[in-house]
Specification:
- By secondary structure, the protein is mainly β.
- The chain has two domains: 89 residues, 3-Layer(bab) Sandwich (Phage tail protein beta-alpha-beta fold); 554 residues, Maltoporin, Chain A (Beta Barrel).
- Helix content is 7%, strand content 54%.
- It has a 22-stranded antiparallel β-barrel. It has a five-stranded mixed sheet with strand order 11-16-17-14-15, with no helix packed on it. A four-stranded mixed sheet has the order 1-4-8-7, with helices on one face.
- Strand 18 and strand 19 form a beta hairpin.
Length: 804
């Protein structure tokens, strides 16, 4: 067991283990962290004795290591690029110490690593394990598209942006931009509509082991203190079931450390060009209640983002201020004998004073609204996860409860429009306010047993239960009257059995077969109106019904070399149906299904990572949240469609401390068969209304990360990116078939400091571009007003961070 050295003395920190034990390969899983924490974990995982005499090394940051290595191999990768080395002093015993300063020539060109005759050839550094597969498959063996962002790469400024930070770093992820806590996520061109209704999202979102949402918008949880963000390109029906048509976004938070008392704090001030300033801050505390047995970790944060949209009609400036406050708490118990128990709680509240859209005929950052259009998103999650390990065999049992409240207000039609759209309102007609409140609660439970083998082989068996209830209440208000509108209450109960197995029938060739069987019960009722009226158009929508789906999958991977993997896969995904409001009536919409065939290749070396893939998706009975002829949001099956996608992601490390990345995704989507009749449109608009919404024809990113030592403990880090989002349409049909996108987003951040403290400056939207991230403000005004959602103007954040 490693203990922290006294700052007043030089103490030899040796890990208790058999000093004469022989080195052996072991499964290593260590995140980027402090040296003292990392060597303690490495000692536990390999049985080696590792220590250091210089107490000042304890705080040094080391690289993550994941894969199967000996202790010496893991230490080499962990300390790569640092001024620290590990020296073997006895069998399976190492001393970590400062390396001698290299000559100028050696600094220009690092010497090639020495190979031991008894050690296997080195694999690419920092072997990554894909944990979202639920049985920890090495990246080199995973047969599909995946991107991983390490938590250490996310600064406080980026973490404060929540999901927008994921979108900025991963080119295959896209989002609507109605406002934080109101958006929908999409991956690799699988997008159904721009609005949040009773349909499930096409992307499954997970926080650790628990599902975040089912039929609710992205809560935009802040990314402070996370271990990693994993994005699996979809569909992911076998492992994640309904609502993973486009893929899965899994955020893995940091768990309590059972040995170290530590904490950190950060803060920043934000200046927004053309807008009001903002502020953010937070703190983390890790407390070992009983060393190596019980640990507690807590986080609290808050931010105020200044507005930048002016309202000409009401004579107000910077109306769209947003306040976000939240926190997390985690308790971990390690009673021994391979057991680990985690209890986690997450809470966050977002309050927006007004919407963030503008109108082109008034100004780039201006609009004319008769009323304020505030919004709110409250989110809570509690889960309990118990794990038991028997070497390569792991049992995981989880129980989660999530609750979300979403309130939105839109500027509605003028009163004459509500009663008779053919009547032109007088100039003095009052403007109505349309409000919608969604209350969503979800209970999930799952038990799974998984075995990990070499080269990604192994198997997984699981059973899960889900109950989701979503209640929508709507109201039209105009002074001095308010009128409740028909609402809906949807309930879904799912019982699922699923499994997956990977075998290696030939050397370097793995085959994966899987399947998921789901039995769903769907039921619904009306809100705020008599059922006789609500179900007049579709009386059958009142009755509960059952849907049974089986989703097969097959995938193959061939490791042509230690660095190159070729893969292909076939997989399906689905969403169950439900009931939706159409004006004052309730009607059913059917479940939909996607089928995807994908092929690709992945190359990894110490200098270069490269992944390319191509996929073809067939989509049946597309569920889409639409706008009816009166401007009210509704849901229907839009028809059938197809999506073709090609993607490339690369990372290049030409010099020590310098990393360049580039990504490009090309999408082609089309509604091949419509399920409803639309109004005639001009021939020039036909191509636009036949596209699936929010599918950019092209998206790409280039980025750079640079680290330079300034002497002593000081270090300069700099990161920058430019991300292009191509053209897409707002929705399906002539009313919504207007173009959006076609903009460039940029940013840069620099930090100077030591591992424990530093100051930083971050600039977003360097070019102060406007663009159009989303062509919607109020659905009732979309036909008559040219609405856009500009990027936030150029913003500069000055921040600090401190840890102990």
């Amino acid at each position: 067991m490693v203990r922290r050295a006294s700052p007043l003395a030089l103490v030899s920190l040796m890990v208790a283990s058999p000093a004469l034990a022989q080195e052996r390969a072991a499964d290593i899983a260590i995140n980027a962290s402090r040296l003292d924490t990392a060597i303690k974990l490495l000692s536990r995982q390999t049985g080696a004795s590792i220590g250091f005499r210089e107490s000042g090394l304890a705080n040094a940051q080391v690289r993550p290591v994941r894969g199967r290595f000996t202790a010496s191999q893991a230490l080499e990768r962990m300390l790569l690029g640092s001024a620290i080395r590990a020296r073997r002093v006895a069998p399976a015993t190492f001393i970590v110490e400062r390396a001698a300063a290299p000559s100028a020539a050696a600094r220009r060109r690092p010497p090639p690593p020495r190979r031991s005759a008894v050690e296997p050839p080195p694999s690419p550094p920092d072997e990554i394990v894909v944990t979202a597969t639920k049985r920890d498959i090495p990246l080199g063996s995973y047969p599909g598209g995946v991107q991983i962002v390490e938590g250490e790469a996310l600064s406080a400024a980026e973490s404060a942006r929540g999901t927008e930070a994921i979108e900025a770093r991963i080119a295959s992820v896209a989002s609507t931009h109605l406002g934080p806590g109101r958006n929908k996520l999409f991956i690799r061109g699988i997008a159904d509509s721009s609005f949040v209704g009773p349909t499930q999202s096409t992307v499954g979102q997970y926080w650790g082991n628990s599902r975040i949402t089912y039929s609710a918008p992205d809560p935009n949880l802040r990314l402070y203190d996370v271990r990693s963000v994993e994005v699996l390109e979809g569909p992911q029906g076998t492992l994640y079931g309904a609502g993973s048509l486009g893929g899965v976004v899994r955020v893995v938070p940091r768990s309590p450390d059972l040995a170290l008392f530590e904490g950190s704090a950060w803060g920043g001030v934000l200046a927004v060009q053309h807008g009001k300033p903002g502020v953010d801050g937070g703190a983390i505390l890790n407390l070992p209640i009983k060393e190596d047995v019980i640990g507690f970790r807590a986080l609290a944060f808050g931010s105020v983002e200044g507005g930048y949209i002016d309202d000409a009609e009401r004579g107000l400036d910077d109306v769209n201020r947003v306040r976000t406050f939240g926190g997390r708490a985690a308790l971990r118990v390690d009673p021994g004998d391979g057991w680990t128990i985690d209890l986690n709680a997450v809470g966050q509240r977002i309050d927006g004073d007004d919407s963030q859209y503008a109108e082109r005929n008034i100004g780039e950052l201006d609009r004319a609204s008769g009323i304020a259009q505030p919004f709110r998103n409250d989110y809570w999650l509690v889960d309990l996860v118990a794990r038991k390990n028997w070497g390569s065999l792991e049992l995981t049992s989880s129980l989660g409860y999530a609750r979300q409240y979403v309130f939105e207000r839109f500027e509605g039609p003028e009163l004459a429009d509500i009663t008779d759209p053919a009547v032109q309102p007088a100039k003095s007609a009052d403007t109505a306010a349309y409000s919608q409140a969604n209350r969503i609660s979800m209970v999930t439970g799952e038990v799974r047993l998984a075995r990990r083998g070499v080269n990604g082989t192994g198997w997984l068996l699981a059973a899960s239960l889900l109950h989701n209830r979503a209640q929508t209440n709507r109201r039209m208000e105009a002074t001095p009257f308010g009128t409740p509108l028909t609402g809906v209450n949807n309930q879904v109960e799912e019982s699922t059995l699923y499994g997956e197995a990977t075998v290696e029938p030939l050397d370097r060739f793995t085959l994966t077969l899987g399947g998921r069987l789901t039995r769903a019960r769907l039921s619904g009722s009306s809100e705020d109106v008599a059922e006789l009226v609500a179900f007049r158009m579709d009386p059958g929508a009142r009755a509960s019904r059952f849907e049974t789906r089986f989703l097969p999958s097959v995938a193959a991977a061939y490791r042509a070399t230690d660095r190159l993997t070729l893969f292909g896969r076939y997989q399906q995904g689905f969403r169950p149906g439900g009931i939706a409001v159409r004006r004052e009536f309730i009607q059913r919409f059917a479940g939909d299904r996607v089928t995807t065939v994908e092929a690709g290749a992945r190359y990894r070396s110490p200098e270069l990572d490269l992944a390319v893939s191509a996929s073809a998706t067939r989509w049946s009975d597309i569920q889409a949240d639409l706008i009816d002829g009166f401007g009210f949001p509704t849901t229907a099956n839009a028809g059938d469609g197809r999506v073709l996608s090609v993607g490339m992601v690369s990372r290049w490390r030409p010099l020590a401390g310098l990393e360049l990345d580039a990504a490009l995704y090309l999408n082609s989507s089309k509604v091949t068969e419509r399920a409803f009749v639309t109004l005639p449109v001009e021939e020039s608009l036909t191509a636009q209304i036949e596209r699936l919404p929010n599918v950019a024809d092209a998206s790409g990113r280039i980025g750079v990360a640079w680290t330079k030592s300034l002497g002593g403990d000081l270090e300069l880090t700099a990161n920058g990116y430019a991300r292009y989002v191509g053209k897409s349409t707002l929705g399906i049909g002539p009313i919504l078939g207007r173009l959006q996108g076609d903009y460039l987003d940029t940013g840069i951040e620099m930090r100077v400091g030591a591992a424990r403290r530093g100051i930083s400056v971050a600039i977003t939207n360097l070019l102060d571009a406007r663009g159009n991230r989303f062509a919607l403000g109020s659905p009732f005004l979309i036909r008559d007003r040219d609405q856009t959602t500009p990027l936030r103007p150029r913003s500069i954040r000055l921040g600090f961070d401190q840890s102990f």
